[in-house]
Design brief:
GO terms for molecular function: glutamyl-tRNA reductase activity; NADP binding. This is Glutamyl-tRNA reductase. Pfam families: GlutR_dimer. The protein is 85% helix and 0% strand. The protein is elongated and about 55 Å long. By secondary structure, the chain is mainly α. α1 runs antiparallel to α2 and α1 packs parallel to α3. It has one domain.
Length: 93
């Protein structure tokens, strides 16, 4: 049985690309949560439960938004599409 070496070599790059995408998603989440929570806290009406709910919402949004790119990159790696992986890496340097 022959192994596609390009596919095997692309796998670590896929995980690196996903890590970069996740890092950027976390950065955006943190920035936007800080902005929203600052505005809400300025009214002195934000309860700890509400703050936690807003933070969970941010987590879920990022998770769901990034699920498709994660799967697309893993599919690209399985197909041996190094170009798609390289593009993702270059977009999130």
């Amino acid at each position: 049985m022959s192994v596609n070496t390009e596919q095997v070599e692309a796998r670590p790059d896929v995980e690196e690309a996903i890590a970069r995408i996740d890092e950027r998603g976390a950065e955006i989440r943190a920035e936007q949560l800080e902005r929203a929570l600052s505005r809400l806290e300025a009214t002195d009406e934000l309860t700890p439960e509400q703050r936690a709910a807003v933070e969970r919402l941010g987590d879920r949004l990022v998770e769901q938004l990034l699920a498709v790119p994660h799967e697309s990159l893993r599919d690209a790696a399985r197909r041996g599409d190094g170009e798609a992986v390289a593009t993702a890496l270059s977009l999130f340097e």
